[in-house]
Write a structure and sequence with these properties.
It is a single chain. By secondary structure, the chain is α+β, with helices and mostly antiparallel strands. It folds into 2 domains: about 60 residues, Arc Repressor Mutant, subunit A; about 150 residues, Chorismate lyase-like (Chorismate lyase, 3-Layer(aba) Sandwich). About 25% of the residues lie in helices and about 30% in strands. The chain contains 7 helices and 10 strands. The strands form 3 sheets. A 6-stranded antiparallel β-sheet has the order 4-5-6-9-8-7. A hairpin with a 2-residue loop joins strand 8 and strand 9. Helix 1 packs across helix 3 and helix 2 packs across helix 3. The longest helix is centred in the first third of the chain and has 14 residues. The radius of gyration is 21 Å and the shape is elongated.
């Protein structure tokens, strides 16, 4: 198989496996060649073959079962721990169809916790929205967002069926910073109904604050069914990293 002369051998194996999956040669849940088979096919060491399988497993492409082998995983959307991404772009990049359901668009006074998150006085007017994001008609994210009206005054007039809140806010109040926390929670009855999951199912909740140079723009709670979503991150080994 042709490959760039400078491409590491483990990367060649990863690319080959990706191609077999994308071309439908290896469908979901099918068993992939063992480390020994890959060693023979690509004339590499077992360590090289193992690295390729381990990285694809960490990326959610493959799943490994002790004593049984390695299989093609059912792909889940993968959210990044290191950047703020637009979910519509993520879905489209996988070749899937993005759509959403808008459940709420309103103005309301800020509760104490939300006011604190937005750096506003308690009771301040803010914009509240709830949008359910779908991947090929399957709900993958419940987004509840509180937005500072001073930094996005036309927020409630937007048609979020054509542009996501994330994309709109990045245009009117360009991102200069953000922070988020992640925890495992159970969905409320309304969230379970809208996400089409059966309780109790563990969900991933991302609490995310983003700000521009003018201040905190929004505070969002992003809820994902655990069976349909995963979080991941990869650090560049060449980056200047410090540990406290």
């Amino acid at each position: 198989m042709a490959h760039p002369a400078t491409e590491p051998r483990y990367a060649t194996i990863k690319r080959y496996i990706h191609e077999q999956i994308e071309q439908g040669v290896w469908p979901v849940h099918s068993k992939v060649p063992s480390e020994n088979s890959l060693c023979e096919q690509f004339d590499v060491s077992r360590m090289t073959a193992r690295r390729a399988l381990q990285e694809l497993t960490a990326d959610g492409v493959l799943m490994r079962h002790q004593g049984l082998g390695t299989f093609v995983a059912e792909r889940k959307p993968v959210g990044s721990l290191l950047e703020v991404r637009n979910i519509a772009d993520d879905i489209s990049q996988r070749g899937h169809r993005y759509s959403n359901r808008i459940l709420c668009m309103e103005s309301q006074p800020a509760s104490d916790p939300v006011a604190l998150a937005l750096d506003l006085p308690p009771g301040s007017e803010l914009y509240h929205s709830i949008v359910v994001h779908l991947d090929n008609d399957l709900p993958v994210q419940w987004e509840e967002r509180y937005t500072n009206p001073a930094l996005a005054p036309d927020y409630l007039q937007q048609d979020f069926s054509t542009i996501t809140p994330n994309r709109y806010l990045s245009q009117v109040a360009p991102l200069s910073g953000g922070e988020h926390t992640v925890e495992a929670v159970l969905a409320t009855s309304q969230q379970a109904r809208e996400l089409e999951i059966v309780q109790p199912e563990a969900c991933l909740l991302i609490k995310r604050r983003t700000w521009s140079r003018q201040g905190v723009v929004s505070f969002a709670r992003l809820l994902h069914p655990g069976s349909r979503y995963q979080l991941g991150a990869r650090l560049d080994p060449g980056a200047n990293l410090s540990q406290e």
